[in-house]
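A.,

Following up on our hallway conversation. Structure tokens first:
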């Protein structure tokens, strides 16, 4: 390795300054092992060709294998992974259910319910069903959560395969298939507590199955085979043609999942309060099912009744209870009549292996399912919630491998470059469906040439986008890149409350991933890192009467942006409180601000602050040691955990503008769910960039940094640039590719 030593004049604030320029190749980067199998389409939608790759390594990791989504035996079709959808694929009929919608009937509140009225877990995204699981850990608060149901026509039988989200002890769960039709709804057998049209019933519990005539519930003697795959959490049932032969006809099919009472040989009957062996939250109907297949579920609605304060907005969220996509299920189970939930299976299509995707939505609001690489058990563990103000490791209550997220796909097809991507992060005590059905998501999604909008579950209601909640954001992003054509240059981020806090945090840690951010009623949790957003303009919406993010706190964030010389645009609403912008649900200024702006890939000035205390190696969210064309920063004193660089290149022939004087004006926002809202708008931008003669020179300011690398091509430099450094110690500079 050849080294050139240059000693530079000490500036007044520097202890001493000198630089070591090393001509060498790139040191080891945080990148995926190239021997691994990586989906090319996924990488095409990500900035994967840049060195360093922006963002954490987990964003570029190949998809993990999920046993629940895999096939064996006679099953071959790929899963749909869009909840509520049906399809005919490879000779199979497939229904994909929602995750974590297993809340049963709307009945009596169980005061011990960890997600009930006495809990602060999901204040703004309440569930409709009140049925709770027995407290025994074998049920994992999730033992009757349907993931998928399949049907296939065999030579001498009809095969059904049901996949559960959780299967700790298979004999504790049960499901019933209601096959065929009848003139009137009939009672389901074995204490299911519901009724619907049917010709025969097949009930499966553990490795056993029993068939009943629907007309009189007499048992049909039959050799029904059951195979339980505990690894895949799948149960295959083969109903022989001897008791039911569908031929090439169209057959009505319904299905429901509950728990099994081993002692009484029927569905486990709910009581009022859950204990070790009994469910709680019973309804008058006595419905014992937690989850029913083949449903259409209403989306959340944002109207004049949506509330304006924390109290009335929470009350409205409880009254609507659409956020877990089980409102219709809860109401039907409460009545005991689930006749509305069924599919008509066309056996001619199955026998002819006809592909029919007409039941799979292509655009609009959806819930998708993906496989995470992290699994800390099965089901839901409310003891693992993070709590307000979490700063360290936290698994979150959604501990399993399969995770949901909300997505809005624009109505217009993608351009040649692909869809843009907008991260819209959910708030505290809300879930991933916070923006489902909202104008907020639609305005962001339909702007310009169309941007996909995603809201990750973040593993629970209170992860503050740290550790596993942060990892979930990037796993969802990677999953979207596997299924939709994305333009990696057009990425923005927004969010309300905790979602806005997360926007500040992630943009400060990974600035070269985002073009712009628009946090709403939020402050930055990493004020010391805001300078890293030098090339990421910020719009803030502030509520003057905010109960949680008070005006003095939001002003501290504005002052931090101002002191760092960043571009910002702040709308302050004097009549709004914390929940008002969410329920008002109208964001024209934020939509215009995010616009179609692209990520600044090669800015003339790079400011970046490393803070290793913010990293989570176990979750794969370690911020890169640099940003844009600066990489592999090494700290001089690792114990300090932080280091900072401010580097300007003259090689690009551009001088960035300077902050302009603060401007302000007033306006009125109208068009939302409530009355028009006045606001005061403050803006500080930059003067226009100016062209300068390209010069092979770079200026480096550094604090607690001993080494860094520059990509001379992206910075417009040669392999022998004039390097001028001001630092508090010796700095070695490597030039990539030289």
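Then the amino acids I'd put at each of the 738 positions:
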């Amino acid at each position: 390795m050849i080294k050139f030593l240059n000693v530079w004049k000490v500036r007044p604030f520097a202890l001493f300054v000198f630089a070591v320029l090393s001509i060498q190749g790139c040191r080891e980067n945080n990148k995926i092992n190239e021997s691994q199998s990586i989906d090319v389409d996924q990488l095409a939608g990500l900035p994967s060709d840049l060195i360093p790759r922006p963002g954490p390594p987990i964003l570029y990791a190949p998809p993990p294998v999920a046993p629940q989504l895999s096939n064996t035996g006679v099953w071959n079709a790929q899963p749909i992974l869009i909840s509520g959808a049906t399809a005919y694929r490879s000779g199979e009929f497939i229904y994909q259910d929602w995750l974590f919608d297993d809340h049963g009937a709307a009945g009596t509140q169980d005061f011990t319910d960890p997600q009930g009225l006495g809990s602060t877990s999901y204040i703004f995204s309440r569930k409709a069903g009140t049925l709770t699981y027995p407290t025994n850990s074998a049920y994992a608060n999730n033992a009757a959560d349907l993931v998928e149901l399949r049907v296939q026509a065999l030579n001498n039988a009809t095969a059904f395969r049901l996949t559960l989200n959780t299967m700790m002890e298979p004999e504790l769960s049960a499901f019933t298939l209601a096959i065929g039709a009848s003139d009137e709804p009939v009672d389901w057998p074995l204490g299911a507590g519901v009724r619907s049209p049917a010709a025969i019933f097949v009930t499966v519990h553990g490795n056993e199955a029993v068939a009943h005539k629907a007309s009189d519930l007499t048992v049909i003697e039959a050799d029904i085979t059951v195979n339980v795959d505990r690894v895949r959490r799948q149960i295959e049932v083969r109903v022989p043609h001897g008791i039911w032969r569908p031929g090439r006809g169209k057959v009505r099919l319904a299905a429901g999942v509950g728990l099994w009472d081993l002692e009484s040989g029927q569905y486990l009957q709910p009581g009022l309060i859950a204990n070790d062996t009994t469910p709680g939250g019973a309804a008058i109907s006595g419905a014992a099912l937690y989850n029913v297949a083949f449903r259409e579920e209403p989306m959340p609605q944002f109207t004049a009744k949506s509330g304006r304060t924390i109290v009335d907005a929470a009350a409205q969220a409880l009254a609507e209870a659409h956020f877990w996509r089980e409102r219709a299920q809860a109401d039907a189970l409460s009545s005991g009549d689930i006749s509305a939930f069924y599919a008509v299976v066309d056996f001619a299509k199955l026998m002819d292996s006809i592909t029919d995707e007409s039941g799979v939505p292509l655009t609009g609001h959806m819930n998708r399912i993906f496989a995470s690489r992290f699994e800390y058990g099965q089901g839901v563990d409310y003891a693992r919630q993070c709590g307000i103000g979490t700063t360290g490791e936290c698994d979150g209550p959604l501990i399993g491998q399969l995770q949901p997220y909300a997505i809005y796909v624009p109505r217009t097809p993608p351009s040649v470059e692909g869809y843009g991507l907008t991260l819209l992060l959910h708030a505290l005590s809300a879930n991933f469906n916070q923006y489902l059905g909202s104008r907020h998501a639609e305005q962001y999604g339909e702007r310009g040439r169309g941007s996909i909008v995603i809201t990750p579950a973040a593993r629970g209601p209170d992860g503050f986008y740290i550790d596993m909640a942060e990892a979930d954001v990037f796993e969802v992003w990677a999953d979207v890149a596997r299924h939709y054509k994305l333009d990696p240059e057009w990425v923005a981020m927004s969010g309300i409350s905790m979602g806005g806090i997360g926007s500040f945090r992630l943009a400060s840690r990974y600035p070269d991933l985002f073009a712009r951010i628009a946090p709403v009623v939020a402050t930055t949790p990493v004020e010391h890192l805001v300078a890293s957003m030098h090339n990421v303009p910020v719009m803030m919406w502030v509520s003057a009467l905010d109960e949680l993010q008070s005006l003095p706190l939001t002003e501290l964030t504005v002052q931090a942006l101002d002191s760092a010389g960043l571009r910002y645009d702040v709308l302050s609403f004097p009549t709004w409180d914390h929940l008002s912008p969410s329920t008002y649900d109208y964001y024209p200024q934020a939509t215009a601000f995010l616009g179609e702006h692209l990520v600044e890939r090669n800015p003339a000035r790079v400011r970046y602050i490393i803070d290793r205390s913010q990293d989570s190696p176990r979750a794969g969210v370690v911020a890169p040691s640099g940003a844009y064309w600066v990489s592999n920063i090494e700290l001089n004193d690792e114990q300090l955990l932080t280091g900072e660089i401010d580097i300007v290149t003259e090689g690009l022939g551009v001088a960035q503008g300077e902050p302009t004087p603060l401007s302000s004006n007033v306006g009125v926002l109208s068009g939302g769910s409530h009355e028009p809202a006045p606001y005061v708008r403050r803006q500080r931008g930059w003067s226009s960039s100016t062209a300068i003669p390209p010069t092979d020179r770079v200026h480096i300011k550094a604090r607690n940094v001993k080494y860094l690398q520059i990509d001379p091509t992206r910075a417009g430099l040669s392999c022998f640039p004039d390097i001028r450094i001001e630092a508090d110690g010796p700095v070695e500079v490597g030039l990539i590719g030289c």
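Residues 584 and 673 are 5 Å apart (CA to CA). Curious whether your intuition agrees with the design.

B.
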